[in-house]
Design brief:
Elements: E1 27-31, E2 39-42, E3 55-59, E4 61-63, E5 67-72, E6 77-86, E7 90-97, E8 106-109, E9 114-121, E10 124-130, H1 135-142, H2 159-162, E11 170-173, H3 185-193, E12 197-203, E13 226-230, H4 232-243, E14 248-251, H5 253-261, E15 263-265, E16 271-273, E17 276-280, E18 295-299, H6 306-315, H7 317-329, E19 340-343
Parallel strand pairs: 1-19, 3-12, 3-14, 4-11, 14-18
Antiparallel strand pairs: 1-2, 5-6, 5-8, 6-7, 7-10, 8-9, 9-10, 12-13, 13-17, 15-16, 18-19
Helix pairs in contact: 6-7
Subcellular location: Cytoplasm
Catalytic activity: 7-aminomethyl-7-carbaguanosine(34) in tRNA + S-adenosyl-L-methionine = epoxyqueuosine(34) in tRNA + adenine + L-methionine + 2 H(+)
GO molecular function: S-adenosylmethionine:tRNA ribosyltransferase-isomerase activity
């Protein structure tokens, strides 16, 4: 299976550069199971496609203001994108500079203070921040929101609110779980009124989510590591939902990755969701059978990306690519601030 198998042509003007004024006004492409026709709706219509007793699972991670600018001792400008907070005011980060900073050097930060370069592991640096406060607190005051690289503008005041989900609470991501951006209070109320339950996992989306697949054979790709927590309460919600005949619907690929990472074999050799907190490098591509969810709400993903491979594994590659062709033809908006799809599995088995 080659990376090029997941290529498609996307007109530049379909990449959403800003959110719509209303979260749930985004369009929704429903991709029913089998060969049923695609349905063009809006996210606010989601309750029509769900049933009382279904469980929507959200990712409650919150985006860190993780982008900082500074200057090397030589005078060269530096851009720092924090990937993960570490103990002792340290962080794992990407550093953009004309020449790579060396271990032991210091970066003067524009908001004040310094970042000391401790070392490098591949594309990531380990930095210690000397900022006179706990790094997390300092970033909330001094950091800038890290919009994705395909959004070609500087973040504005509106992004501070719109690039967070309304249920974001666990600080630690450097990118939003974008399927969740479509939910507002009115839509959540409408879903509750229909008898649909809500559950939460946490997966802190890392900067690696934007890294391209660099190998031609996708089986050789090594996923970046992300931290997640699937709690006991969510596991019990899933079990209760299944016992009553309800469906589990993931809001976003990050929820799928979290739930699949928490699947364990029981005594009968079957997959069973168990509480789990820790790192995951799970890579889901066609040939992998997703067992943890019955449907998925997700945005439209980049060509040749691991996320496009994941949805192809769930719904079937030919079906996904037919849906993407429909979306391009109908001028859906793509990527983080774009429109959404409601996907069902390739097989109802």
């Amino acid at each position: 299976m080659k990376k090029s198998d997941f290529h498609f042509d996307l007109p530049e003007d379909l990449i959403a550069q800003a959110p719509l004024p209303e979260r749930s006004a985004s369009r929704l492409l429903v991709v029913p199971p089998g060969d049923a026709p695609f349905v063009d709706r809006h996210v606010r219509d989601l309750p029509e496609w769900l049933q009382a007793g279904d469980l929507l699972v959200f990712n409650d991670t919150r985006v860190i203001p993780a982008r900082i600018f500074g200057q090397k001792e030589s005078g060269g400008r530096v851009e720092i994108l924090i990937e993960r907070l570490l103990p002792d005011n340290c962080a794992r980060a990407q550093v953009g500079a004309s020449k790579s900073p060396k271990a032991g050097s210091r970066i003067a930060l524009d908001p004040g203070g310094e970042a000391e370069v401790l070392g490098r592991d591949g594309e990531f640096y380990q930095l210690r921040f000397h900022v006179g406060d706990a790094l997390e607190s300092w970033l909330l005051r001094a950091g800038r929101l890290p919009l994705p690289p395909y959004i070609h503008r500087e973040p504005g005041a509106d992004d501070d609110e719109r690039y967070q989900t309304v249920f974001a609470r666990e600080l630690g991501a450097v990118a939003a779980p974008t399927a969740g951006l479509h939910f507002d209070d009115a839509l959540l109320a409408s879903l509750r009124a229909k008898g649909i339950e809500f559950g939460h996992v946490t997966l802190h989306v890392g900067a690696g989510t934007f890294q391209p697949v660099r190998v031609d054979d996708v089986r050789e790709h090594r996923m970046h590591s992300e931290w997640l927590n699937v709690g006991a309460a969510l596991v019990e919600q899933v079990r209760a939902t299944r016992a009553c005949g309800g469906r589990v619907i993931a809001v976003g690929t990050t929820v799928v990755r979290a739930l699949e990472s928490a699947m364990r074999r029981n005594e009968a050799g079957e997959g069973e969701l168990q509480p789990f907190a820790g790192e995951t490098r799970i890579f889901i591509f066609p040939g992998y059978r997703i067992r943890s969810v019955d449907a998925m709400l997700t945005n439209f993903h980049l060509p040749e990306s691991t996320l496009l491979m994941l949805v192809s594994a769930f719904t079937g590659k030919s079906r996904i690519f037919a849906a993407y062709e429909h979306a391009v033809r109908e001028k859906y908006r793509f990527f983080s601030y774009g429109d959404a799809m409601l996907l069902f599995p390739e097989s109802a088995e």
